[in-house]
């Protein structure tokens, strides 16, 4: 059974002219332990798709399933990093993270929650800022705190919406490595299932087992690409290979094609 399954998903928003279709007939599944990236132009429905998986957006038709059960609302088996990072402004950074852990692991004692929060704060490079409030942090630091919260929750599924968008290049590379090391866990059976939205093609290739490209709005699946590079991956090594350059070119052409659509995609599908 797939960990995540999306079947014939349509999503609409009400707008002044009636209805705006954001997603059209999207179907795909994600295996347990798989790392899937979703790439699509701005406005094509990336966040809408993750919102459906989080259980905060209801599809107009079709369904999303997790572990074979329909998604009807948020669940403690999923941790999300939102595009607009969402720390609670009245809690310190450490408390924000400890609160996330409490949601996912109700039985963990308070001391253990705070200790785990401190570990993750340190791993994202925020030790020293644990007692600050979100407004006292830079945008990139707030985003790292939101990532620490999601990772610290240690859920089966991670839903990440451009999580590294506001992070500088050096921290971004560290965060990618941290995410991969946590994703890999303690062996194949422990692997998390990740759905990761990004606009960065190199990031998607470096991280993913599979890349799903959405068409321009309304978002449909334009193409899927398996990413075969063995792990652990070293970016500076794989990016020199012919396979990397070939895959990157295909993704870039499709991404920058003004008319990216399902028909246009067929010739690129590998
Ligand atoms: N609450 C809303 N009401 C009306 N339209 C909406 C609403 N939220 C999103 N949309 C529209 O639905 C489409 C998809 O939005 P979504 O947020 O999924 O885009 P996205 O692919 O995540 O974009 P980006 O990559 O820029 O974050 C967009 O055209 C957007 O204008
Ligand atoms: Mg978005």
Find the structural class using helix and strand composition: alpha/beta
% residues in beta strands = 15-25%
- Oligomeric organization of the protein chains: single chain
Instruction: Report mean pLDDT, rounded to a whole number.
Output: 92
Give the termini distance in whole angstroms: 25 Å
The set of bound ligands, ions and cofactors reads: adenosine-5'-triphosphate, magnesium ion
Count of beta strands: 10
Describe this structure in words.
The chain is built from nine helices and ten strands. It is an alpha/beta fold. The protein has a six-stranded mixed beta sheet with strand order 6-7-8-3-9-10, sandwiched between helices. Strands 2-1-4-5 form a four-stranded antiparallel beta sheet. Helix 3 packs across helix 4. The protein is globular. The relative contact order is 0.16. The model has no long low-confidence stretch (mean pLDDT 92). Adenosine-5'-triphosphate binds at residues 13, 15, 20, 22, 40, 42-48, 83, 217. The site of adenosine-5'-triphosphate has 14 residues, from strand 1, strand 2 and helix 1.
Keywords, please?
single chain; 270 residues; alpha/beta; six-stranded mixed beta sheet; four-stranded antiparallel beta sheet; 9 helices; 10 strands; 35% helix; globular; binds adenosine-5'-triphosphate; binds magnesium ion
């Amino acid at each position: 059974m797939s960990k995540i399954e999306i079947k014939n998903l349509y999503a609409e928003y009400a707008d002044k002219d009636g209805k705006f279709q954001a997603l059209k007939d999207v179907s795909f599944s994600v295996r347990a332990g798989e790392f899937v990236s979703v790439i699509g132009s701005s406005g094509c429905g990336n966040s809408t798709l993750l919102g459906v998986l989080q259980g905060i957006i209801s599809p107009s038709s079709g369904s999303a399933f997790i572990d074979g059960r329909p998604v009807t609302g948020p669940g403690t088996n999923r941790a999300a990093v939102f595009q607009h990072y969402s720390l609670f402004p009245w809690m310190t950074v450490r408390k924000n993270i400890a609160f996330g852990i409490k949601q996912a692991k109700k039985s963990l004692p308070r001391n253990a929650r705070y200790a785990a929060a401190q570990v993750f704060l340190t791993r994202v490079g925020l030790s020293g800022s644990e007692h600050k409030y979100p407004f006292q942090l830079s945008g990139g630091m707030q985003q790292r705190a939101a990532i620490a919260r999601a990772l610290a929750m240690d859920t089966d599924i991670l839903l990440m919406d451009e999580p590294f968008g506001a992070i500088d290049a050096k921290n971004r590379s560290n965060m990618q490595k941290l995410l991969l090391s946590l994703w890999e866990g303690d062996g194949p059976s422990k692997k998390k299932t990740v759905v990761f939205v990004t606009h960065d093609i190199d990031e998607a290739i470096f991280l993913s087992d599979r890349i799903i490209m959405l068409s321009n709005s309304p978002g449909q699946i334009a193409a899927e690409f398996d990413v075969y590079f063995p792990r652990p991956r070293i970016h500076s090594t794989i990016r020199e290979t012919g396979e990397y350059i070939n895959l990157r070119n295909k993704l870039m052409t499709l991404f920058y094609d003004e008319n990216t659509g399902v028909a246009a995609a067929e010739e690129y599908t590998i």
